[in-house]
Specification:
By secondary structure, the chain is an alpha/beta fold. The protein has ten helices and six strands; from the N terminus they run βαβαβαβαβαβααααα.
């Protein structure tokens, strides 16, 4: 089963490669950025993708959307430091088969890989519980694209850079930011950026 590993840390990719080899899964191809991953997926047509959300260019949720737009049959397991139910919910809504945090035990990560490789769903137990018990917040109205825009804002990107990263017009990016302010109940761009930093900061990476 051809597998694409998407993570910007070589040591993580090396560890995953060893695990996949032990599980008899391969061949394996790798990408360390979102854009490289999308391009590689077009040529390699992987059946299984293991995807980090915290990437240096396109965020993982945007990459997930683009991968599934190219091939609805690809099986995607999100493996990330983001254990927040918001990210898990959006990834699963966007079409990911599984979601597990990097803080999980090796046994749970292995179980997640095997389940998704079989075409089954898998959500880390703690994350699934958090989703089930989560209180309603303003963040529940945010889409995967909203979270990607917030991630870019948190990185200090300008509206022009956000538009370029998402492949949309400047006006579309500006309108999206205005809609985000409405969803989150803030009026100033500075407030939006502050919330973006709070929402998008991973637990560690």
């Amino acid at each position: 089963m051809k597998t694409l590993l998407i993570d910007d840390h070589a040591i993580v990719r090396d560890g995953l490669k060893r695990l996949l080899i032990d599980l008899g899964i391969g061949p394996i191809v790798e990408a360390e950025t979102g854009r490289a991953a999308v391009a590689l997926a077009r040529t390699e047509r992987p059946e299984l993708v293991i995807l980090d959300l915290n990437l240096p260019d396109l965020g993982g949720l945007e990459v997930l959307t683009r991968l599934l737009r190219e091939d609805r049959a690809v099986r995607v397991l999100v493996l990330t430091m983001h254990a927040e139910p918001l990210y898990a919910s959006r990834a699963l809504q966007a079409g990911a088969k599984g979601y597990v945090s990097k803080a999980s035990s090796p046994a749970e990560i292995t179980a997640a890989i095997q389940a998704v490789a079989r075409g089954e769903g898998y959500v880390e137990a703690k994350v699934a519980q958090a989703i089930a018990l989560g209180a309603q917040t303003a963040f529940d109205n945010l889409s995967a694209r909203d979270l990607e825009i917030l991630r870019l804002l948190a990185e200090g990107r300008s509206l022009g850079e956000i538009a370029s990263a998402l492949g949309v017009a400047y006006k579309t990016a500006a309108n999206s930011c205005t809609q985000l302010k409405d969803k989150l109940g803030v009026s100033r761009t500075g407030e939006l950026i502050r919330m973006a930093v709070e929402i998008c900061a991973p637990a560690g990476d």
